[in-house]
Amino acid sequence: MRATIIHAPGDIRVEDRPEPRLIHGSDAIVRVAASCVCGSDLWPYRADQGPEEPKPIGHEFIGTVTAVGDDVRELQVGDFVISPWANSCGQCPDCRNGVQVACQHRAAWGGRDESGHDVEGGQSEVVRVPNAEGTLFVVPELSPQRGGTRTADEELLKSLLTLTDVMGTGYHAAKVAGVGPGQSVVVVGDGAVGLSAVLSAKLLGAERIIAMSRHEDRAAIAREFGASDVVAERGKAGAEQVRELLGGVLADCVLECVGTKESMDQALRSTRAGGHLGYVGVPAGGPELPLGVLFSKNITVAGGAASTRNYIAELLPAVLSGDLNPGRVFDSVMPLENAPEAYRAMDERRATKVMLLP
Amino acid sequence: MRATIIHAPGDIRVEDRPEPRLIHGSDAIVRVAASCVCGSDLWPYRADQGPEEPKPIGHEFIGTVTAVGDDVRELQVGDFVISPWANSCGQCPDCRNGVQVACQHRAAWGGRDESGHDVEGGQSEVVRVPNAEGTLFVVPELSPQRGGTRTADEELLKSLLTLTDVMGTGYHAAKVAGVGPGQSVVVVGDGAVGLSAVLSAKLLGAERIIAMSRHEDRAAIAREFGASDVVAERGKAGAEQVRELLGGVLADCVLECVGTKESMDQALRSTRAGGHLGYVGVPAGGPELPLGVLFSKNITVAGGAASTRNYIAELLPAVLSGDLNPGRVFDSVMPLENAPEAYRAMDERRATKVMLLP
């Protein structure tokens, strides 16, 4: 089977790999219907140093179950599944507590499972999924043996694919920041996660949504997703613009969707006293949080890596009905074979997010 | 009138000062019934450098209104009042949002009001209270002209006095950490605020309350306040003790009530993935929060300076009925004239908290 491998920074190749087989009783094999490149995949791509050895890459994929291990009870061959970016057992105290990202038996896509066996990356034709029942979320409507009669077109694939990561991550930011009716929201970051956060804020009933964006094409999607205002200024000027738009106060909820020192600073500057900052940007060597500012302003900071599996049940019906179209964050679709070009396009900001079709 | 003045680190004196008079229409004059020394008063007392000039000190007091300005409508002469540590106007957007500590017109006890006039410290016989109606909370039961028939004995004075700061601050930690029925709570810090946090966690229905204490006298009060367990270990060993007590998981809610690098580290180590850390320890040049740890563990950090006025209405009835006795944190009562000894006793940890009676 074909799989995307990172050899070194900037060096992505699609290569032949042995087709994965069941190893553990709790495994499933999934034939990938669509995968994609995540903003965080660009980190090793842009890193100073490459992986010690060539490594499969990708952690966002959807597809069909083609085999299940002996211990698998609920999943069936033929199930169409969404595979959240965080593999999780579903049984340990952290999973039962709803924090699958802290799963004590978590396997790493493109890395190893708990027992040390290799696990494929998501940007592949076929993936072995450890902890299959704790991880995979079945979409019965797309699973014929469960009576499903639909097939997913490209637009639906895109939106389903966002539920593995970016849409669930943006939704996490909004949920932990307590976004709700009547509230003012600032979203820092206009990548796929930031745009998903805008859509999530709208879905949760926010009254005013300010997207901080400097890219007209992304700002246009933000507006389509529900942003009432777009602010291009940054730093103190950006925060003052927010204050002016909100009639003299800063935002009730700020969603940080980047992960840099600058974006967190922007988020803190934009949050009113007593406000909530939901952050999901993976901290990129960023600053530690300035406790003095948080203390005097009583800013609540919540978020982190999103257990996106939690949100699939909540978001899926609207995706299936077409009321919710988070797949709009994909502005490019390529065959899996073009993965190297997908990385280049995202790295050079020619694309916001690329879907790969095997 | 007599007032406590800090001249330099370690140099506290009780001196004659002019009796304060009304300056603004929104002022009230309060004759102090009781005041006390806060843990945070020990900072300038222990500092390397003293204030530029001798400065009144103290921010926790209760007493009786003896005069009100022309713009005061609700407060009356004769009202027995609780004066929260944070002076606040009650009208600005931050006050209306429930964050009085961020009040845009806040006056500083022992400092200046918005118009630059001196304000007495709370460890005085008489205090001018700017923003009187936004700040003072009336206790009708102790106000004869409102039909109040009670007088406060020393035990009641103690408990009422905690509502100005320490009890409200401990309660803030517990509330923002989402303490509720069935939850496990760790309290870091066994000073007056930490003990109040234990009492608050009990009041909010926590199932298990672990107090981290190494002082047997304070641990005894913690147990009396509702602590189910006391842990003396610190650092990794302390967190492992918590995990063992809780059957293999860390705490749902951790209340940080100290403000040092070590206490925050202890709090983070003790919080389970997806847990809540409520902090009220004033950051003492402490560390910034390590975002990487928060991110991977999805720890929510909330708290900061407590707007204790918010909690008085909720806590007062139980204090008046005698069901709630936060005043137990006072282990010493002295006349105001002995303020220098009160500071020494707290500095040398011979006392947890000292009430001063004018």
Architecture of the largest domain in chain A in CATH?
Answer: Alpha-Beta Complex
> Biggest interface: chains and residue counts?
A-B, 37 and 37 residues
Q: State the shape of chain A.
A: globular
If you compute it from the alpha carbons, what radius of gyration of chain A comes out, rounded to the nearest whole angstrom? Answer: 20 Å
- State the CATH topology of the largest domain in chain A: Quinone Oxidoreductase, Chain A, domain 1
Summed up, the domain count of chain A is 2
Number of helices of chain A: 12
Estimated structural class of chain A: alpha/beta
Mean pLDDT of chain A: 96
CATH superfamily of the largest domain in chain A: Medium-chain alcohol dehydrogenases, catalytic domain
Helix-strand string of chain A: EEEHEEEHEHEHHEHEHEHEHEHEHEHE
End-to-end C-alpha gap of chain A? 10 Å
Indicate the percent of residues in helices of chain A.
25-40%
Report the biggest beta sheet of chain A as strand number plus sense, adding barrel if it closes.
7 strands, mixed
What proportion of the residues of chain A form beta strands (DSSP E)? Answer: 15-25%
Explain what the structure shows.
The structure is a homodimer of 358-residue chains. With 358 residues, chain A is an alpha/beta fold. The first copy, chain A, folds into two domains: 2-165 and 307-357, Alpha-Beta Complex (Quinone Oxidoreductase, Chain A, domain 1); 167-303, Rossmann fold. Helix content of chain A is 29%, strand content 23%. The first copy, chain A, has helices spanning 42-46, 93-96, 132-135, 154-162, 166-176, 192-203, 216-225, 235-245, 261-270, 291-297, 309-321, 339-347, and strands at 2-8, 11-16, 28-36, 55-56, 61-68, 80-83, 126-129, 137-138, 184-188, 208-212, 229-231, 251-256, 271-279, 300-303, 332-335, 354-357. In chain A, helix 5 crosses helix 6 (192-203). The mean pLDDT of chain A is 96. The interface between A and B is large, with 37 and 37 residues.
